[in-house]
């Protein structure tokens, strides 16, 4: 008869996600995961097969958190939601978690060169952010806050790349004033409609 599970898999996955996010895949040992989750090695293996399986599940959980916490707000918002998103990311890049950057970007830098499945997963997560930004820009057009001929796809891609730049500043520890100035310039297009017009 199988022994009942004695741990909460959701809590364990959340704890593992933060370990991988902070330390990266290679620098995280099974011992680190056992300590962080409070779950013994055999139970971790039984639930996620191996460290790689747990890492993939943690990456997926990170994506779910982003969808729940921010991307949904972008899809139902407009220019104000975009600005709020950038300001929150700026605060995060300068806060107590400074240096962690973004789990997705960390994964892209560490693992995608040699793992096609991980590369596909990170690309999909980045594309979701871009899609949410494009939707927010479209909402702003519909609300009359941006010109009707705004190229929302091009500017959604630009904003998505700018977000990656802001998050990477957490790694380089750029001064707050530098990051704020970058964000101000990036968001200036939302207050300058002619910059968002398609080329005739």
Concise overview:
With 200 residues, this protein is mainly α. The chain is built from nine helices and no strands. The chain has a domain at 62-193: Orthogonal Bundle (Tetracycline Repressor, domain 2).
What's the architecture of one domain, going by CATH?
Orthogonal Bundle
- Unreliable sequence segments: none
Number of helical segments with 4 or more residues: 9
What level of helicity do the residues show? over 70%
CATH fold-level topology of one domain: Tetracycline Repressor, domain 2
Structure write-up:
The chain has 200 residues and is mainly α. It has a domain of 132 residues: Tetracycline Repressor, domain 2, CATH 1.10.357. It is 73% helix and 0% strand. It has nine helices and no strands. α1 packs across α4. It is elongated and about 60 Å long.
Which features would summarize this protein structure in a list?
200 residues, mainly alpha, Tetracycline Repressor, domain 2
Topology:
Blueprint lengths: L8 H15 L6 H8 L3 H8 L2 H26 L2 H16 L8 H9 L4 H27 L9 H21 L3 H16 L9
Helix pairs in contact: 1-2, 1-4, 3-4, 4-7, 5-8, 5-9, 6-7, 7-8, 8-9
